[in-house]
Amino acid sequence: MQPLRRRALRRFITIALIAVAIVVIVLVALVAGGVLVVPSHSATPVTISSVHLVIQEENSSGGPWFGAWSINYTGAEGFPIHVAPGGVWWIVWENIFNFDSVNHTIYRVTPSSPFTIASTVPALPDNVLWGSEGGNLQINVATPSTPGATYAVTLVVDTLNPG
Q1: Exposure of 47 by Cβ count < 10 A (0-12 exposed, 13-18 middle, 19+ buried)?
Q2: Of 93, 96, 2, 86, nearest to 46 (Cα)?
Q3: What is the pTM of this model?
Q4: Is the CB of residue 153 less than 8 Å from the CB of residue 141?
Q5: Cα maximum dimension of the chain
Q6: Within 10 A of 65 (CB to CB), how many other CB atoms are there?
Q7: What's the pLDDT tens digit per position in 78-88?
Q8: Which of 6, 85, 92, 115 suits a disulfide with 111, CB 3.0-4.6 Å?
Q9: Do the Cβ atoms of 99 and 159 come closer than 8 Å?
Q10: How far apart are CA 80 and CA 47, in angstroms?
């Protein structure tokens, strides 16, 4: 290769390296300054702001056999929570007491739309013996697949005879 061509090739490579370095520095500066945002591959989570647990029940005297007819889970219980779209989260109804003098069954849990029940622990229907105390019901709830929405969720626990 002739010296003139070699010198021109070196000059071209040097200029190309300097140009690439300048482009990289400018891009890094734009990202650091917040002008250019690196795309995220994770979807915006679904936000659950609170949960209202409604227990459908009534004993022979007209009062609830499991205590309160509703329980609110809010900031004191760790809400809001953020869940991936289409993901599963859970709420636990703790220390279930059956104050009635007969056994009662928890038949199903129905969430407000657009949520669905993924599962429960224990599985439903679940018989709660009279006088029993301290049992738990873990309700695993599937979130909608639409990202970014915020919901206050109502879960209806049905303990009335479905027939």
Answers
A1: middle
A2: 86
A3: 0.70
A4: yes
A5: 107
A6: 21
A7: 999 999 999 99
A8: 115
A9: no
A10: 7
